[in-house]
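Progress report, Aim 2. The chain analyzed during this reporting quarter is listed below.
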Amino acid sequence: MDRPGRLQALQSLVRWAVDGAGAGLPFAGTAAGWLVPAIWIAWGLGFALLLLGAVAVHIVLRRFARRRTAGQPGFA
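Predicted structure tokens for the chain:
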């Protein structure tokens, strides 16, 4: 393919992409209205799950340490 043919193909690709993006812009405004709260809710749930996991691991490790040191002298 010669150079002007490549340039025309690239121009038509860019034109197609801009036309497609322009058609989706009105949807982007309405999507932002519900997408932002949904992202915050997902972030909060993820944070809560990580926190609960850390608490569970802490409890399990504390119980394991108590069992291990209960029979040894010098430990209360």
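Residues 50 and 56 are 10 Å apart (CA to CA). The longest helix spans residues 3-70. These observations will guide the mutagenesis work planned for the next reporting period.
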